[in-house]
Amino acid sequence: MKILVIEDEQAMLDNIVDALKGEQYLVETANCYDTAMKKVFEYEYDCILLDISLQNTDSGFDILTELKKHNKAEGVIIVSAKNSLDDKIRGLNLGADDYLPKPFHISELLARVKAVIRRRRFSGSDQINAGNLKIDTGEQFVYVADQPFSINRKEFEVLLYLVTNKNRLVNKSALAEHVWGDHIDSADNFDFIYSQIKNLRKKLKDAKALVDIQSIYGVGYKLLAE
Amino acid sequence: MKLLNYTSRYFSIVLVILIPIWAGLFYYAMLDEVYDSMDDGLDNQRQLIISKAALDSTITNHKEFEEGNYSVVPVSALDARKHTDIYIDTMMYMQNEKDYEPVRMLQTVFRKGQNYYQMRVITSMVEEDDLISELTYALLWLYFGLVLTILLLNNFLLRNIWKPFYKLISQLQDFKLNNVQRLTLSDTRVDEFNLMQNTVQHFLNNTVSVYNHQKQFIENASHELQTPLAIALNKLELLAENNALQPDQAQLLDSALDNLERLKRLNHSLLLLSKIENDQFEAAKDVSINSLAKRLIEDFREQIDFYKLSFTFQEHDQSKWQINPDLADILMSNLIKNAIKHTPTGGAISITISNSNFIIENDSAAPLDNTLIFERFYKGSASSSSTGLGLAISQAIVKVSGLRLGYAYNQKHIFTVGPLA
Q1: Cβ–Cβ < 8 Å for A73, A48
Q2: E-assigned strands of B55-171?
Q3: Which of B222, B235, B241 best tests the A interface by mutation, with the highest count of A CBs <10 A?
């Protein structure tokens, strides 16, 4: 799996590369318009992370426009510090797959990258496995040892997020933000999140799922598959 | 005091003093002229009589005035030599008026042959009393007429001349910094008004531009903070993944992460607030508050259950707001989130939709300060995790959406969002 990261802020680039390498992706980088243009047309990538404001310009959009012209915009995730609705709409209209506002959590970045790759590889319907757990992201259904595993929508989202970030520490705020979005102030609701995880853990245990959700020193949770 | 009244008052005071002075001078000048003309007439008569006396001897015998207007009395040469011509005012009995009336009399001396005669020629004077009163009345009328005319003219002229001024003032009274609007300047030939209009226009342009920069600054600053925040957050997350971390190290990390999260939320809220105030949200649509409320209640259901809150939802009617859907979502979730956060475990929350109003009530021991709750960074409780911007954002949303957000307390907090009265 090959991913191109186009980002002019070196520290940011390092973070993203570190995170992606941890998932065994092949990562290439570009920190300016010219390098980026050279690379996108020289190689094929499964996913391109594109910072829209390179060197304080909107040249990220120029890259995207070029990509669209050559039918290569698919698989692009726009990363932007602007979080503007206009930019998001403009980017998605230019064929980008997703829009990720800065600052983001590593686990969120990985979830988005994986979702894009899944969509491209399996046209939206594929299965993620962890232990004897099988999640069908297309049907939004979970199987434990091939038996249907019944959970509610929020629990499904928690589980999918943790499974996507399997073996990684998922920050509790990242989880809260991903699942409950703006409807939660994570800092006030740690016990609430904890209780949700506890319920899920119990259900998994009852269904004899071979996965374990660990709490890591109050920082967050990690799903381990046996 | 209005400028108009001010000048009018000034005018009338000046006129009250000046006009009587002028009137007095006018009166004496007139009187002088009248005497002058009468004296000339008497002098003329004297010459006529003297030349007539040379031919007609009866004239020298005309000792009493009787039917004529002169009398001639012989005098000694000695007396005659001492005599000079004098004009005097005196009284004389008039047959027609049956009264003494003032007359003007010339006393003179002339010689006929060797004889000297003293002659007195009279002419009835215009009745001085009448003249005085006539003049006084005329002057009074003139005075009132003048004052009235001047005041009316002054009123009319000033009203017209000052039109551009009042127009400008009324525009300034309605002027709002956040509304992009230009002044419509009046076409005036008065230099001072042109100067004023241009100065005000220039001043406003500057102010608006400073204000816009200020607004833009908050937005830009928030944007600029995003990248370093992202870097710091991600570095710590990567560090947290390090399995070799000791529990106490992990706790330090956790605290740092929590605070970065807080900073992130704060920044996000500031940016949102600034975007709302800069009107960067798209046009309003009809949003059904019933279905929005129902959807949000579902989203919050787990939290409501978790905190064991008793929750009631009442719909008295189906209502719609003209509002940007995203803003409606933020507005309502802010209020619901607040209610959940500030209700003690086991307390009650109720949501009512009635008459286009969305009313959310939650149990609480003490009221909030009505004058402060919508201020930025006001925190009702000492909750350190709160940004203190939630209600400020809600308030900004209702403002741009033409709605109203009110707070009341009755053993519980009552927040009402609805159309402007």
Answers
A1: no
A2: 70-75, 86-94, 99-112, 115-124
A3: B241
